[in-house]
Amino acid sequence: MIGKEKKLAIYMEGNLDSIYAKMGYGVMRYSENPIVCVIDSDYSGKKVNEVIDQPFEIPIVASVGKAIEMGAEVMVLGLAPTGGKLPDTWVNDVEKALTLGMSLVNGLHDLLGERFAHLLNTDKPEQVIWDVRKPLTDYAIARARASALTNKRVLMVGTDMAVGKMTAGLEVYKWIREQGISSDFLATGQIGITVTGKGIPLDAIKVDQACGAVEHLVLEAQDKDIVFIEGQGSLLHPGSTATLPLMRGSCPTHLILCHRGEMSTLRDVTDIKIPPFNEVIKLNEAVAHACGSFPKAKTVGIAVNTSKLNESEALQVIEKIEKETGLPVTDVVRFGAEKIGRALL
Amino acid sequence: MIGKEKKLAIYMEGNLDSIYAKMGYGVMRYSENPIVCVIDSDYSGKKVNEVIDQPFEIPIVASVGKAIEMGAEVMVLGLAPTGGKLPDTWVNDVEKALTLGMSLVNGLHDLLGERFAHLLNTDKPEQVIWDVRKPLTDYAIARARASALTNKRVLMVGTDMAVGKMTAGLEVYKWIREQGISSDFLATGQIGITVTGKGIPLDAIKVDQACGAVEHLVLEAQDKDIVFIEGQGSLLHPGSTATLPLMRGSCPTHLILCHRGEMSTLRDVTDIKIPPFNEVIKLNEAVAHACGSFPKAKTVGIAVNTSKLNESEALQVIEKIEKETGLPVTDVVRFGAEKIGRALL
């Protein structure tokens, strides 16, 4: 974990405009830490919003040394490539950052804590290598302890993987917080963990301990009136297991269904069609409730990711789903989170 | 893995009558390997059925040396204690067995392969230490490949953990095989893996890979007309994740629901009542089908574990559930598996 006051540099050397840069973009969009710069020598001297279609006026510098001059205390690796390996071309800069006293935040599958431990300065106890994806502890077997809590527990679910559950959750969470409501966002994936400074890497946890890990997370935040639990996977995806431990560990009281506006099938398994929304909602609510064994979870809205559509297409899709389900539907990034947020008050 | 012709000794020193002996009993009941003896010096000279209430006429001997004299080639550790550690008092005999050339089968969480590797005879390549609970490989992300198969895939599900899903599955599988039908039992826990010589330790696999591991298992057995997939956990248990990857990986066509006759609540979480059977059946079928995304799985029968009831109580419970659900219901250990097996033909 990294204190909220620590100054970050996001390391994206050669990759600021890569399709694997979503870790970096997530940190730019949602981290509460000050971000002093992005490191990518291809674009040094410019600002991020001059290079890519993202609204961040963050200066880009050419080197680790320059980032430290600007006050950076923590280097965040901004890439999430398939396979999750540290690129060989990054090793020198990682070693340099550690030698010069920076902390390192690593969301790759490749764990770096042991590999580079010898570079940590022994007289600097606050310098750490944080492998975000490394499960921290053993968790107790879950016992539905969350069902005894009186707060609202909002679980993000999806029609597919990678439809924007984290982003939608963070946007609605931000809106709720702005209303002065005591609230928290509970991260379950590496980007969310990096952004919020805490959470659990659910995908990397053993089947046996998955529910217990989620329960632990939810109990830790029990003093908050509304908690948002970052979703993973989908009940409809043949490769996805995470929905069940998320539901059992958190005992959700509310669900927000997330969907990618242009999709009529799963992205990876295109012969699986997205079923009618009302059926998907019913299935998710049935699993959460489990024949009365757990709290009744009500679906309060549908967050549609319309980033691949123009504005008029986006509005059409939203209207169609709204008519079909009778629920508040919107793209919370494009049109704001109020419409869905209000349904939680 | 251990060849089916290898002769086994089951090591239960000081524990033949322990509550943690279910690993040993499972091997005695279901292993296809010849079992030459049980090792427990407390009862040497007797047979197993003279010591405990289990129908096995297996001789008990006092030492590893004696087992080897009788032809034993493989020593199976017969204990599954809470925590899964190797008892200190067993270390000497494990070392002795390995030094004298026996293979070792270990179902404990404690992995022994590395710890004792130096004792393996380098000129004896068939001598192995098999840590049954160690996940073997990385698995591909599941893509519902099993849904394209034309065989019957029977998944065991439960109203709770530890209700006898493995035993019921093995009994129905045995009956089906006796009818001359090409069939297989796919193990997903340490006892089933030991007994059948293959399978996946689902609880120890990462959430990310769980569906893929099950899919791998089911695809390997695709030439069989009926496959039984050993169940784990329960959709109703707050600490259980395994039902979802089992359903997604296997795309079951049939379900057998397992229940412990005397229970009206979960065993570990007693404030969760077992819901009406028809609702449990509906929920399991709904999750398996996922709004039409996967094959429709039909529940063909209910296997009730009545080991805690006398025969008249057992028959009463069975009749009651049969009336409630209209399905074939029986205790497959006590009354035979034919009643449920026939429903699969």
From TrEMBL, chains A, B:
D-glutamate N-acetyltransferase-like N-terminal domain: residues covered: 43-135
Domain of life (superkingdom): Bacteria
Domain D-glutamate N-acetyltransferase-like C-terminal: from-to ranges: 141-340
Pfam families given in the database record: DUF1611, DUF1611_N
Organism of origin: Maribacter luteus
This protein's name: DUF1611 domain-containing protein
